[in-house]
């Protein structure tokens, strides 16, 4: 297992006339098919040790949550839970309980049982295809958190019909960053930025002299340059879009983000970025808002004052901001 450490100057501006410079350690490792990176002040005592400990935790969580290894706890759950109740680790049970709540809160737009749909459309094997109606209908019968029963007293999980699968691809990176940030906090780290690929970011504290960590969001229609900046302090950011995987058939484009309520690829939204107080929620809500659109985001944010979303709709010139977060500031950049 390789851990990479680099030292470079970090330079950014909180305002056009003010810059703050510092030296930071960037410690990274590949996990969950992406690059996890911890950025931490170089002067922090035992900085590399703390960052490596956080990445060790990432590795352990990947081994637990992945569906690409038969030895993972989630793979065992998918094999056995239709036959009998399966006891699971406390953290995994808590994650499932949160998934169940988010499933209800988003009117089923977030659904960790949608993995069979991904297989049906060929995205699991990265060989996209349009399924026939019979195959899609049969798959839809196995999708939905109503088929997953949680026994909180026994901490067990039971699938109520055969063929149900759990896949935490839409929440796992954010959940993992939540636990990595908590580990850093327990070790006395008060400023760090943790990221997973280009889709999930967790900000702990803020750099000295700045109001927060400055994260650039690329415009989905531009190859280079930023469409917006987000200033984060003790908050999490997640982005969902369909540019990662797609195919064309019959002159029509099909993206890999699927609506679990219809079984069809989502249309009309190019990208959604969500800020929330937890990484798991940010990840799940970015997917749900991408699936269900602006109206769900408005309804959700109206009752959750710590959630904000930035939408890039298909034909809009500028992004749309919904909601707010007390420790976040969005700045839309002109092209």
Strand content: 25-35%
Largest sheet: 9 strands, antiparallel
DSSP helical segment count: 8
**CATH uppermost class of one domain:** Mainly Alpha
CATH topology of one domain: T-fold
Shape: globular
Over all CA atoms, what is the radius of gyration?
Answer: 20 Å
Integer average pLDDT: 90
Q: What order do the helices and strands follow?
A: EEEHHEHHHEEHEEEEEEEEHHEEE
- CATH-derived architecture of one domain: Orthogonal Bundle
Low-confidence stretches: 1-20
**Total number of beta strands:** 17
Give the end-to-end Cα distance, rounded to a whole number of Å: 41 Å
Approximate helicity band: 25-40%
Q: Strands across the major sheet, in which order?
A: 1-2-3-7-8-11-14-15-16
CATH H-level superfamily title of one domain = ApbE-like superfamily
**Structural class by SSE content:** alpha+beta
Characterize the structure shown.
This protein is an alpha+beta fold and 335 residues long. It has a domain at 73-159: Orthogonal Bundle (T-fold), CATH 1.10.3980.10. The protein has 8 helices and 17 strands. A hairpin with a 3-residue loop joins strand 7 and strand 8 (200-204). Helix 6 (172-186) runs antiparallel to helix 7 (279-292).
């Amino acid at each position: 297992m390789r851990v990479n450490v680099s030292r470079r100057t970090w330079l950014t501006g909180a305002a056009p006339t003010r810059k703050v410079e510092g030296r930071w350690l960037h410690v990274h490792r590949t996990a969950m098919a992406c690059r996890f990176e911890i950025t931490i002040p170089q002067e922090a005592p035992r900085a590399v040790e703390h960052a490596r400990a956080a990445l060790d935790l990432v590795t352990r969580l990947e081994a637990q949550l992945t569906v690409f290894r038969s030895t993972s706890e989630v793979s065992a759950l998918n094999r056995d839970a239709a036959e009998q109740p399966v006891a699971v680790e406390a953290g995994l049970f808590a994650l499932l309980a949160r998934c169940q709540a988010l499933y209800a809160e988003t009117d089923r737009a977030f659904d960790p049982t949608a993995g069979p749909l991904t297989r049906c459309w060929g995205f699991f094997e990265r060989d996209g295809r349009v399924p026939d109606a019979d195959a899609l209908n049969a798959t839809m019968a196995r999708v939905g958190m109503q088929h997953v029963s949680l026994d909180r007293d026994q901490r067990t999980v039971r699938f109520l019909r055969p063929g149900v699968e759990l896949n935490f691809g839409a929440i796992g990176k954010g959940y993992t960053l939540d636990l990595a940030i908590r580990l850093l906090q327990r070790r006395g780290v008060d400023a760090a930025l943790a990221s997973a690929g280009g889709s999930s970011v967790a900000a702990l504290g803020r750099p000295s002299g700045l109001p927060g960590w400055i994260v650039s969001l690329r415009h989905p229609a531009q190859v280079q340059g930023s469409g917006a900046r987000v200033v984060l302090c003790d908050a999490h950011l997640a982005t969902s879009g369909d540019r990662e995987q797609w195919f064309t058939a019959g002159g029509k484009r099909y993206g890999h983000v699927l609506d679990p309520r219809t079984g069809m690829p989502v249309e009309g939204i190019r990208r959604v970025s969500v800020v929330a107080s937890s990484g798991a929620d940010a990840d799940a809500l970015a997917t749900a808002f991408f699936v269900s659109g602006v109206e769900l985001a408005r309804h959700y944010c109206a009752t959750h004052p710590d959630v904000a979303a930035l939408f890039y709709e298909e034909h809009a010139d500028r992004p749309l901001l919904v909601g707010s977060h007390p420790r976040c500031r969005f700045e839309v950049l002109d092209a």
